[in-house]
Amino acid sequence: MYNVKLENYIPVPQPATPDRVVAVHYYAAWKKGSAGLHDAFNDLHTYPDRTPLCGYYDEENPEYADWEIKWALEHGINCFIHCWYRKPENQGKPVTVNDLRCGHGLHEALFNARYNQMIKFAIMFENSPRWGTTDSRDLVENLMPFWCENYFKRGNYLIIDNKPVLFLYYSPRFEEVWPNPADQAAAFDACREYAKGEGFDGMIFAICDYKKSGAEYDALMARGYDFRFSYTNSYKPAESYPSEEDVIEGQKETVRKKFAEDALRFVPTVSCFWDPTPRTTKHWIDMGYTFHLSKIWHLSPEGFRQVLRDVKAQSDALPDGAWGKKILMLDNWNEWDEGHFIAPSHKFGYKYLQAVREELTERENLPDYRTPQDMGLSCNLNKSWPEPDFAELCEEMLKNK
After folding, report:
1. 1 occurs within a structural domain
2. pTM: predicted TM-score of the whole model, two decimal places
3. What's the pLDDT score for residue 383?
4. Total domains in the fold of the chain
5. End-to-end alpha-carbon separation of the chain, Å?
6. Which residues, 6 or more positions from 374, have their beta carbon under 8 angstroms from its beta carbon?
7. Are the C-beta atoms of 308 and 356 separated by less than 8 Å?
């Protein structure tokens, strides 16, 4: 009776039920050659604690996407927010899948997964200076047609009040494109009208911006945004490696401050930790990244649980109609090298996900904690990632010591 497969495929997810959208940010940059900035899992050989629980996986594989859908749903996460990039040379032109950076996470994996209709997804348009941005004409003539046909009209896109929710990452670049806030608001209104022509009741625009307050905040929201959020919790310690209690209280306080500034238009994020050590090499510094200056902090699964509990309580106390009552964000599913991930890993197992389920859902389900290896279903998940050369790895570690 050894090595007998009791299942031929991943068992159907048994979701836990949250009372709102529980959305997790998703960074699909682990397919070889897709990121352009780093070498995917090859950069993590000297960080074994950051190994995904099922090993280095083939990110474009729909079967792996089904495992992620199962893990997410069974712990109360009901939406993946995919980072969405267009290549700079595509700006001002019609968009195709080939014009995307890291588009495989959606177009190859999620869209072909057996259980994809069980979970919502959304996109976050990343228009920071390294990637392509847009303008008023391009937004309506090129981006909106592509987004509508490929994403918004799919049965599992995040739609609220019959309006697709579009997350936007980098507000400073939008301010460069549209120096006059009214021009940006007009461009977004044109998108809303386009969406109405496609059968929706408009669009919802959400901006990632946690720094602005007072008059600057008013000017930001005059640009046509419906609500704002932060990719991470935006907690910033005074120095690296603060105590866990400081991190817990710091995250709670950042949410309190943002709700106090605008109780109706802020969506909170709860973060697990922030440790971009793999991105502190000369390679990253030479590219102009300052991860080496980042303040590093960690939060145990139990500390994460405490923040979840507090932020949910704060959100529950908001006025009716507040966006923070409708959506809660988690940071992050799979930022393996930037150093914030709640997906199952060798170091933490399912502990961060268990905290989400136990604090944000009715816990009416029974999660399945068998791994792909346990079920004999791991053979197709990591064909592109053979075991590293351990002699070479030891030599590299000694060199860097």
Report:
1. no
2. 0.94
3. 81
4. 1
5. 47
6. none
7. yes
